Amino acid sequence: MAKLTVLGAGVPRPSKERFGTSYVLELDNEYLMFDCGPATTYKLVKAGLWPTKIDYLFFTHHHSDHNADYPCFVLCRWDQSIGGENLLNVYGPEPTKSMTDRLFGNGGVFSIDLKARINGPVSQKT
After folding, report:
1. pLDDT at 75
2. Is 7:47 a contact under the CB 8 Å cutoff?
3. How many CB atoms lie under 10 A from the CB of residue 15?
4. Exposed e or buried b for every residue in 71-92, given b needs 16+ CB within 10 A?
């Protein structure tokens, strides 16, 4: 049975009731997230869904109210991973790949953070 969780169905202007756009569809033990608007990661956890549960992320389009929390979501998912979860598959219109590379690729905005966390003394302990 399918289950739809509405994390946000708002507009660009935040309000107490509606803020950012994001939905999660649970279908046959797979979790598909549509859009990743402001505060999505927080609202995901508040709804009892961990970022590591999400297998697919689909962007409907690239306005900030649909993708502003993408870096937070990916970094949180990566930080909380233990290696047994599925890889995150991200789909969307242009410039989804370019945006992802500019955020997380070599020389990307978060590449320094990722390298520091991987190479830090605590991360090196087994």
Report:
1. 93
2. yes
3. 8
4. bbbbbbbbeeeeeeeeebebeb
CA–CA separation, 40 vs 7, rounded Å?
7
Phi, psi of 91 (to 5 degrees): -130, 150
Q: Which residues are catalytic?
A: 65
Residues in CB range of 19: below 8 A, 6 or more apart: 8, 10, 37, 38, 39
- C-alpha–C-alpha distance, residues 78 and 16, integer Å: 29
Helix then strand then coil, % of the chain, to nearest 5? 35, 20, 45
Low-confidence residues of the chain: pLDDT under 50: none
- CA of 70: how far to CAs of 2, 56, 57, in Å? 24, 13, 10
Cross-strand partners of 87:
none
25 Cβ contact partners less than 8 Å away, ≥ 6 residues apart: 2, 3, 4, 5, 31, 32, 33, 34
**Predicted local distance difference test score (pLDDT) of residue 26:** 97
- 38: DSSP letter: T
**pLDDT attached to residue 115:** 85
